[in-house]
Automatic annotation (TrEMBL), chain A:
Residues covered by the EF-hand domain: 107-142, 143-178, 188-223
Residues that span the membrane, as ranges: none
InterPro entries xrefs: EF-hand-dom_pair (IPR011992), EF_Hand_1_Ca_BS (IPR018247), EF_hand_dom (IPR002048), Recoverin (IPR028846)
Domain of life of the native organism: Eukaryota
Listed GO MF terms: calcium ion binding
Keywords: Calcium, Metal-binding, Repeat
Classification via SUPFAM superfamilies: EF-hand
Record Pfam families: EF-hand_5 (PF13202), EF-hand_7 (PF13499)
Name of the protein: Calaxin
TrEMBL record, chain B:
Repeat positions for ARM: 622-664, 871-913, 953-986
Protein name per its UniProtKB record: Outer dynein arm docking complex subunit 2
UniProt region (Disordered), positions on chain: 306-349, 362-438
Source taxonomy: Eukaryota, Metazoa, Chordata, Craniata, Vertebrata
Domain of life: Eukaryota
Residue ranges, compositional bias (Basic residues): 333-344
Basic and acidic residues bias: start-end ranges: 306-332
Positions with biased composition (Polar residues): 393-406
Amino acid sequence: MSLFNASSCHGNGVFTSPVEWRSIESHIVCFFFFLIKSEMSSMNRKIIHTLAESISKQVDHFSKTEVECLIREFNLLLGEPVSTGRTVSGLDKERFRSILHNNFGLTDDMIMDLVFRTFDKDNDSFVSVKEWIEGLSIFLRGTLEEKIKYCFQVYDLNGDHYISREEMFHMLKNSLIRQPTEEDPDEGIKDLVEITLKRMDHDHDGRLSFADFEKAVKDENLLLEAFGTCLPDIMSADAFELRVFQEPAEL
Amino acid sequence: MGVSLTKAAQWTTGGKLEFTSMNETLLREILSFVEELGSRHPQEAEQVLKEPLRWSTTLTASDFKTDYDISDSGVQSHEKDAEGRPLLQLCPPTVNVRSFGQLCKLVHLAADKKLDELRACLEENRDAMVQMFGNGLEKEDNQTDVPRLVKEEEDEVKVKLFHLVQNLDELLIKKLLKEITETVELDCATVNNDVESLKELCRDGEKPALESIRFTSDYEFSNGCRAPLWRQVHGEICYLVVEPCDTETLYITCSNTAVFLNAGIKQEVEESGYERTSDTYKDLLTLLKSRSPHFAEHMNKQKIKAGEFDEMNEKGQEKESYRQREKNVNEKTRKHHVPRKRSAEKKYEPCPRWKNLGLMSPCGKAEEKKPKSSGLEKVQGSGARSRMKAEFSLSSLPGRLSSQKIKTPAGAMELSSESSSESEEEEEQSERRLESNTDLPPEYWQIQKLVKYLKGGDQTATVLTLCAMLDFNLMQETCQLAIRDVGGLEVLINLLDTDEVKCKIGSLKILRKISHNVQIRQAIVDLGGLQSIVKILDSPVKDLKALAAETIASVTRFRRARRTVRQYGGIKKLVSLLHCVPNLASLTAHQQKDVEVARCGALALWSCSKSTKNKEAIRKAGGVPLLGRLLKSPHENMLIPVVGTLQECASEESYRTAIQKEGMIKDLVKNLSSDNEELQMHCANALFKCAADKQTRDLVRNYKGLQPLVSLLAKVNNKQLLAAATGAIWKCSISVENVAEFQKYNVLESLVDLLTDQPEGVLVNVVGALGEFAQIPASKTTIRKCGGIKPLVDLLNGTNQALLVNVTKTVGACATDQDNMAIIDQLDGVRLVWSLLKNPSSDVQSSAAWALCPCIENAKDAGEMVRSLVGGLELIVNLLKSTNKEVLASICAAIAKIAKDKENLAVLTDHGVVPLLAKLTNTTDDMLRRHLAEAVGHCCMWGSNRASFGEAGAVAPLVRYLKSKDHRVHQSTAMALYQLSKDPNNCITMHEKGVVKVEEQEDMPVNHNNRSCICFCLTLKLTKL
């Protein structure tokens, strides 16, 4: 509040409109964040460093520096420093969804929830920094096999290692424009599910096992994201990498 | 009788009635009318006709009886008209009849000849109606049925008679029409509708599609046709005169089977001109389109509008039919439906899309659905059936309605645009009809369903649907056409413009396959799909780029597509795909993708490079060095498109130079030894085209490319490869050094073996190569020893002009060897070569004439041999009238050889060789001059030919030849002048033209004892004067 006054004095007048108020306020907030961040980076550099070292040993596709960048990005997104000592620390569902939406162009809420669930391996409703980096490793650099595994996990709604007819229907139910004239508006989707199942279900047990899914995708790569976009497209992935990995050079 | 006579009766050009069954009927009817008129309507029969009917009769005075005054000069009836003229007057052979009563009597008198009399009467009174009733009445009646001429009592009778005749006329036509309908089926509605809508187009704004269109006749028979009845029998409906904006007036016949141009029927009644003078066309629009480019263009514009209209309709139809499908139409309704559809179709058949989509689909769908959903049907039970019937008739209604709609003027526009799109897709249409006759395959309905999902699905559903579609056998035509017919192409192309990478990939994967079908390719280009695909080449996603390039490769197999690619900057983009590092041993995944992209780019360029302008565009975009770099790739699948492009482009001089300069010959030679025959073939083809250049030939030798070429001759089963290899050998053997090198590998033997049982493509090259080899004396012997002469002479019987040119050349080259010549003579080869002078191709003519020279020179008894060829000398003299310089030169050369034999020279002279040669002397072509002078020189040796040459003015031009820069011209000219100078008059001319001066001024470095000697002689002679 004192700062406030000071600035108002410095401003040499009275704030006439709320717009100016707000802009001033945001400048101040930014300033505080900068203080926190610079302080944090000096304080936590060591922590990040050691964390990066340990994580980069477990993740294939990122170098140590890249992991450091991703940790920094994670912290930035989290808005609070990571401390290894804390019990619960990570991105909650809401925040994760907005990240997916803003950075990776995912749009479908249901799919984004599924992606969150897949990232959140320990099911604690938070994506920890480790889960974040592990997830991104597939997201950005995953091999086809890894992506197949990942997508299968996303689509396996109940986690029974099969994608059932019902699960497919659930995921596809909004994918066709419903004809109001039809007696059964879901007819088209049901048909689509049948066609897809027929195509992918190689062992003819009426559901997709991982083996089915893997074989189908290897035959036709387009089927990787068969039941909804759950990976970033190449453009936004490149943009994300460019932004995150180049940051240290700028700083 | 008016209409029936003018329009129904068939007249010959001489104004006679043809002896056809229809004319017979007509005559009989008229006869019975005339016979009955007298008894039935006595009053009318007495009515005096306005003008007498006059004809030459076969009746004589003796045939007439009591009621007549019979005198020496003729016969007159007792009955007279108001002015005292007899109603019947016979001055043999002419008879004048002024009333029906008299006509009736006359016919009666004629007895068994009555038909002939009536025929003669009608033939000589073509305007019978006018003669009978006068002009006014006739005209009046055309507008109203009530003549307004009723002034006097008498006229009333006249009008009655007129009506009687009119009735007869109508009756006659009705009867004849009935007969016609029994024999031929005429569908006038289509034609009339077409014409109506075209008339509409003529009025269309400032740029009408046509200047005018009109029927030749305004009279429409009750069956709707306008052609004379006797032409209707032939199935002709009407005749049109169409004035297009850009070509001459078209006279068109519309018949029930086809539309074609006639020999010019301009008005209602023509006796001739009905014959067909063009190909037949399916309908009027097709004919107009093919005849008038302006019209075609106009129609294409219309088509776009029509497309929108179509779509609207389609949607409506689809909804209906979709509901239909849900309901499961049962067998009963189907049966009920089919005949109805047919009848509707037969009548109008305006829009095949309606037929296919609207009317056709419900029944077909039901069929497809049936086995699948039999369970469902049970649940629905019989209650659903009645409901279905109601629904059904409703759904078929729009189709019927819309086909009727076109009859109204408002619908005319729609019709024309509809039918234009129909005729545009001519072959497709025939395809469709074929399909709709048979049952559509189940794939058709499945694909239709998938396309519907594509239209209404989000990204995920779209990708799934695309994958499902990829599961069909897309190389199968039924699937390809099904996708197009249900509107799938439009959707697939639309997907290309979205931002969804996966959708684009899926769409391209399908397009890449279905575009193997010609019709699909055209449709893609028509729908503007190629532009979208070209745009995708800029995408950062490599998979997409590669797929797009691959699709382009498959679509651009016709010229319009290639042009489109160029016009949208596609060539540049494709060339930029070629940037990659092709020859690294180990590649990263990224580099591998780059290589794949480059490969697809090369494939597309290969396909595009079939257009000359594209070759240029590729070069300008810097494609040649990039291709050169890719040529170093170790992978065959990369090399084939690259070499394919290069060999395609090597038809251009600029490329040949570039290929040589960029050092590609080495790589081409290297790949000749590849294991892949296709690659070998393209390499050999590239060398074939490039080796026209001497440096290239030397390079091939230096890179040791000759031996691999020879070893390719062993691949006798791959004819394309063989053709390419022999072609390369042919061109390489133009260099003597190469011939020597080739000889080490016994090429001649292999080539001679290939002279029999090979396709012409191979033969041309083999014979060409032999021709080059035969320039060397040793080869001639070898060819003979291998038994090559006989197959060569046999080939002279062929028809392929390129082959004949080479064969004659080779035979000529062989004939320079005495022993070869003996064999050729024995095989009657000279006669065969000689007869080729009659070939229409001037290349063959000249080549044959050149070949004759050595033949005549080396034949044992040349004079006798030439004489034995009946008409041969005349033939050769006549060829001096040719306009082709090469032909003329070769014929002159042959004449020079022939003229060595005095007897033959005499024959040549008789055929007028001297004036023909003299006429040619004004030429400036050195080649021709040289041989012409030679021929003149030799032809001087007979009779008064020297003087004749002088008289024909050949001397002065010949003197000018001495100013030519070619010493060979001088040589033969000097010879000719020497011969000519033996005639004193010629000497004077030479002197006047300053031959001495010319000779003195000559300071050519070329020696010529010969020349100086001749000069000397000349000078001597001249000084003597």
